[in-house]
Design brief:
Radius of gyration: 47 Å
Number of domains: 2
Strand order of the largest sheet: 1-2
Largest sheet: 2 strands, antiparallel
Mean pLDDT: 79
Helix content: 55-70%
Structural class: mainly alpha
């Protein structure tokens, strides 16, 4: 039976219960003010189970015939001295009725979920990054664990699970996984460019040494001998080669000795890489195997946080 009670405080609440002897089997309280509503519930039950008063039948016509009947005799003493015993209450209802707890407000739940996703995803991403840098190896299954950690963090911070929290965890896990992959790729690029910077510095020093020797050459014989020693073409040095050396290469050697270009600009040309180039290398690092683990991580985060 569904019972609806209106508390004097103005709060109305309803619940399903099976009455015992047309009474409440347990106590109920108002979920708003905490007042006892058992008596009000009993009144509702009584009004619901009270027998309907049948409609009064039309009065029979009055007969003119009179019949003398003896008066009914009084009942013998003790005829009703043993009434039927009362029905004992049904055991089992020992707790007072507890109304369900109101759910957490949606905005507060979402904010807690976002905070949990950011914290969990950030910590997991940092752990993945430092593990990769320490071992100089990429572990694809780490993306799966990153998604699990993000989903658990969202669930713990929100203290609940829902489809909305599942989507929040999935987004945070995706950002954390791809962000960690980009940091790892960018670190490998920086390491490679540092090695290229060393190559550029060595090349610059070699060119400076050649320039110091080349600007001092005067005669054709000196230039021819120098070209045969320093050029690896293997071709015979011609008069045109000597003229080109005087006209083109010696002025450039002199500019190099004068600091044009400076050493920093020269080595920078070996390491220059735009953000678009770095992003292109990042996309190239996303193999099908890596994307498979990313999918596992995102799906796990959604499943855990959605409850």
């Amino acid at each position: 039976m569904n019972i609806r009670v209106e508390c004097p405080c103005g709060q109305a609440y309803s619940f399903d219960v099976e009455p015992v002897n047309n009474l409440m089997p347990c106590a109920v309280v108002c979920p708003d003010c905490g007042a006892d509503g058992t008596e009000l519930a009993n009144q509702v039950i009584a009004s619901a189970v009270a027998p309907q008063i049948p409609a009064r039948a039309p009065a029979a016509p009055v007969s003119r015939l009179r019949i003398d009947r003896p008066a009914p005799s009084a009942p013998a003493p003790g005829a009703y001295s043993n009434p039927a015993p009362p029905v004992p209450p049904v055991p089992g209802y020992t707790r007072a009725y507890e109304p369900p707890k109101p759910p957490m407000q949606g905005n507060k739940l979402v904010l807690r979920g976002i905070l949990g996703g950011v914290v969990g995803g950030g910590v997991a991403m940092a752990c993945w990054y430092f593990l990769t840098m320490a071992t100089e190896r990429e572990f694809g299954f780490a993306a799966w664990f990153l998604g699990i950690i993000t989903g658990v963090s969202v669930r713990l911070f929100a203290r609940d699970g829902s489809p909305v929290l599942g989507y929040i965890a999935a987004v945070c896990a995706t950002v954390a996984i791809l962000g960690g992959e980009f940091l790892v790729t960018n670190s490998f690029i920086n390491k490679a460019t540092a090695e290229l910077a060393g190559v550029g510095e060595t090349t610059y020093n070699t060119l400076i040494k050649e320039a110091n020797e080349g600007v001092k050459l005067q005669s054709d014989a000196e230039i021819k001998a120098w070209l045969q020693t320093n050029d690896d073409s293997g071709e015979q040095v011609t008069t045109a080669d000597i003229a080109n050396f005087r006209k083109v290469r010696q002025p450039k050697m002199q500019d190099l000795l004068n600091g044009k270009p400076p050493k920093s600009d020269f080595t920078k040309a070996f390491t220059a890489m735009s953000l678009s180039d770095r992003f292109g290398l990042f996309k190239a690092s996303l193999t099908l195997f890596t994307l498979l683990w990313v999918g596992f991580g995102v799906a796990s985060a959604w499943r855990i946080a959605s409850g």
